[in-house]
Amino acid sequence: TQLLEQSPQFLSIQEGENLTVYCNSSSVFSSLQWYRQEPGEGPVLLVTVVTGGEVKKLKRLTFQFGDARKDSSLHITAAQPGDTGLYLCAAARGSNYKLTFGKGTLLTVNP
Amino acid sequence: KAGVTQTPRYLIKTRGQQVTLSCSPISGHRSVSWYQQTPGQGLQFLFEYFSETQRNKGNFPGRFSGRQFSNSRSEMNVSTLELGDSALYLCASSSPYEQYFGPGTRLTVT
Question: How confident is the model at residue A96, as a pLDDT?
C-alpha cells in the first residue's frame, strides 16, 4: 500500500511559469519533509514541516502542511531550469528515523 | 561539516554473489538509515541503526542485513544477489528531526 501519493507524476513547464505539486495521504503524520533529487545523486532535504497549517518559504519555493497533517504542497514561483529534478515528499509517524516516501514528481523546466 | 559519504559509488556484481556497502554519517549523528531506490518502487526503507543496534526494519528479505560500528559508521550486506536487487542504495544520517542522504551506491546485478 502506497501511503503517500504524489501528483502529478511528471511535469514539464517553461522557464518563468509557476507550478504546484501535491503530496497526499489518508494517514496523519508527525512531520513531513520535501527533498529534491538529481540524477545519480541522493535526495537533498529542502524543508521539514511539523505543525498543521504550517507554511514555510525558501526563496521561490513555498511549502504548506495541511491542517490535519495528512497532506502537503510545494509551490514554485517563476521556475528556472535549475529547479529541474525529482521532488520527493517523505513523512514520519512519531520517530523521524523511518521515513515513508512518495514516488516523486519529476519536474523539467525548459529554458 | 562533512556530509554523508558512501562507498563504493558504483558496483557491478553477478547473481548469487554477495555485496557490502559502506556509509559514514555526519559527525555527531548516531542514527543511520538505509533505503533502496528503484524506478518502479521508489524509495523503500530497509533498516535503521542507532548506537550499534537495529532499531527499525522494513519489509525486505533476510538476505539484506546491516550493522553499525561504535564510530557510527554503518555497512549493509546483501547476500545471494538477484537481478531485482539492482538499485540505488542510499544511506541517511539522522538528527532527531531530519535526515541527510549520501550520494548513494549504484548496484547493478548481472
Answer: 59
